[in-house]
Amino acid sequence: MVLAPVLPPSPEAVPAEPSFERLVADLVGLFQRGVREALDEHVFNDWALRVFRWQFQHNPAFRGYCLGRGVTPGTVKSWVDVPAVPTGAFKRLRLMSAEEGREPDAVFHTSGTSRTERRGEHWVASLRLYRSTLLPTFRVHLLPDGARLPMLALMPSPQDAPTSSLSYMIGAASEAFSAEGGGWFATADGVLQEEELRRAVEGAVDTGAPVLIAATAFALAHWLDGLARENLRFALPEGSRVMETGGFKGRVRGVSRNDLYHGILARLGIPMNRVVNEYGMTEMLSQFYEPALSRFQDSDVGLEDRFHVGPPWVRTRILDPVSLVQVPDGEPGLLCHHDLANVGSVACLLTEDMGVAVADGFRLLGRIPGAEPRGCSLAIEELLNAAQMR
Predict the structure, then answer these.
(1) How far is CA 155 from CA 143, 170, 191, 201, 255, in A?
(2) Domains of the chain by range and CATH?
(3) Cα separations (Å) of 114 from 71, 163, 246, 280?
(4) CA-CA distance, 172 to 142, in Å (whole number)?
(5) What is the pTM of this model?
(6) What does R_g of the chain's alpha carbons equal in angstroms?
(7) Judging by DSSP bridges, how do beta strands 333-339 and 241-244 pair with one another?
(8) Digit-coded pLDDT (tens) for 311-362
(9) Separation CA 279–CA 354 (nearest Å)
């Protein structure tokens, strides 16, 4: 009797996930362990490969992109080998990874740098997943003391800005953690309602109740300019804090971070060590924070020494802008994030933001100057070609 040889499985013969909802439920369970519990590298790798298998099977453009690079679930053994997708690709393609026919829970738009620029679209397959990743990180970095504070949001509400991922994020955090007395203080087109905001701040001062102010850096700068013109100063109650998200991209006027934080202290009475920078992006469901409150609130860590940390289900590498090879520690490069929460789109994202690795995270250096990095533009070209061929 002659036995047929045992052949290795085909690279594409990988176990199928039962459903997207099952995968989401399992990830939510992982995220509910919290931000403070580290995720072992082997565990993260197993999860990343599971997510990659799903996206390879259910995202045709991404699958074609991977095949063009000779990458399949059968050949990838480490999460670092999953091809990174430039965030610029979200301006050209619908990169949703879900069963055929599934409608997204939301479509968030990037801000863009001008009215004529094509904006990116993140087709979010599961808002449940978004909430499960944003809430624990928000709580740890903005409310480590367990406080429930009125939240003053200097941005449109989710109802007025349904395509804003930031408005959705702050709305979810407000529902979960905010005390009474907060509100939204910008119109649908982003104009600050300064009179209403002033009354809310005066009310907080009168009652002695601390508040949490959530805003882009541009909105804060605009508000502080108005307070300076009217020569108004407030001493918000101890325990008040600010979450600022950066956000000067495409604006005519900028202000240094040092000046912004000094203005917050001078006009609102909130010290620098209670101002937390959040770094996130429309194309990514998880966020990074400076641990100003969660680790350094009682120390004098200067702005130049601050850095960002992500949740355990995210890994960040620093890559050369041209070759996309990881740079040595201490050298600047492009930030590349691998976010398990992005299971419904693409998990490995190549940004146009520069950063440098530090012991516990990375230091954000800002947007890369000039044209789109060559490594990003070549990858986008590959993606577009793959999408056209499918």
Answers:
(1) 20, 9, 8, 16, 19
(2) 127-312 (3.40.50.980)
(3) 36, 17, 17, 20
(4) 14
(5) 0.90
(6) 22
(7) unpaired
(8) 999 999 999 998 999 999 899 999 999 999 999 999 999 999 999 999 889 9
(9) 12
